[in-house]
Amino acid sequence: MGMRSLEEVVRERVAGRAADGLFRTRTLLEGAQGVHPVIDGRRVLSFASNDYLGLAAHPLVVDALRKAAREYGVGSGASHLLTGHSRPHRDLEQALAEYTGRPRAVLFSTGYMANLAVVSALLDRHDAVFEDRYNHASLVDAGLLSRARLRRYPHADAASLGRQLSLSSERHRMVVTDGVFSMDGDLAPLRELRAQAEGAGGAWLCVDDAHGLGVVGPTGRGTLEVEGLGLQDVPVLVGTLGKAFGTFGAFVAGSEALVEALVQFARSYIYTTALPPALAAATLESVRVAAQGEARDRLHAAMGRFRDGAAQRGLPVIPTPSPIHPLILGGSGRAVAASRALLERGILVPAIRPPTVPQGAARLRISFSAAHSTADVDRLLDALTAVLS
Fold it and tell me: Residue 90's pLDDT is what?
């Protein structure tokens, strides 16, 4: 019997996804990112973006991009270790190190690549990596590709992690967690995880704070600031630039030795073209704007108004300290129907379904931005009340 054709196999897989009610489609954004974008030819009120501080189209950030593009062009032309590392890259790395309170930072093209770099460059088949079951897919893939033994503990369950660590005997052990979990919006119990890692003979702790940096903590320095943890507690900090900072790319911040090891050994750093220098210059400006705190204050005002209004109306929203507020509806069909009903009212809130979330935990994922006004929040509350009643 001959091998089935590629076309036959992929068609069957896509049809199966559609039959399971999990088929996904892409919408078309026309114009700049914002809370009132034009999607598929229609202007909507969006609660679907990671542009938490409203910096993706901020005039100062856009101007910085334009100016740097005139000087450096639109492409870096090479990897960082050849001729692709420009002054804006160096300046941004220094600014990110200062922002996170760490000796050094190194840029990556995406958060996915940063996570692959950390785990695969620091661990191998003689080691073990321990991950929260709700970790982002990039962290799980990083664990698999590293060839280290991958163990996953129940979500936010530090005691379970401790038991797993106590039974392990690998040469090196790393605990890896999201800082803010992207589908639930809750914060990892970093102090408890750190205590378990320390109690297990000094397992290394790595935090991917993609959804925390810029938005949580007294000054927006993320989940480590919330917990009062520093470099000695969490030696590896991963951050992204496409969320609160509104641009694109990622970084890892840590000690001089850690960053140099990544530069020397991380394949997803060595063997890829560097970010465009103009984009690095734009991000440098966005970091400056974010550090001022005004956008973060507006974001938290919008979040607070929504949480209070949802509680008053009895909406089944899980309150979180992050911009991500899930509304669990259970079945995929119900979540999709609610999302469509909101869109009929001109409000974009995505339905999140398995395999992104566990079976029976489909939800509306409501994301807030500093650009959301009081009227925007009230309009969402009214629509949710009508759709879910």
Answer: 98
Q: How confident is the model at residue 24 (pLDDT cuts 50, 70, 90)?
A: confident
> Could you give the CA distance from residue 94 to residue 221 in angstroms, rounded to a whole number?
16
| Mean pLDDT for the stretch of residues 131-141 | 97
Q: Is the pLDDT confidence value at 2 over 90? A: no
pTM of the predicted structure, to 2 decimals: 0.95
Chain region(s) in the chain for CATH 3.40.640.10? 76-275
User: Cα separation of 322 and 294, whole Å?
Assistant: 16
d(C-alpha 115, C-alpha 111), whole Å: 6
What pLDDT sits at residue 8?
A: 95
Segment holding 133, helix H or strand E? none
Which amino acid is present at 257?
A
| Distance, first Cα to last Cα, the chain | 56
Tell me how far the alpha carbon of residue 286 is from its chain's centroid. Answer: 17
3-state secondary structure of 184: coil
Q: CATH fold of 76-275, please?
A: Aspartate Aminotransferase; domain 2 (3.40.640)
Q: Which residues participate in catalysis according to the annotation?
A: 182, 211, 243
Q: Where in the chain is the domain with CATH 3.90.1150.10?
A: 24-57+293-388
For residue 274 the two structure tokens come to 């560097």
**CB 317: neighbour CB atoms within 10 A?**
21
Which top CATH class is 24-57+293-388?
A: alpha beta
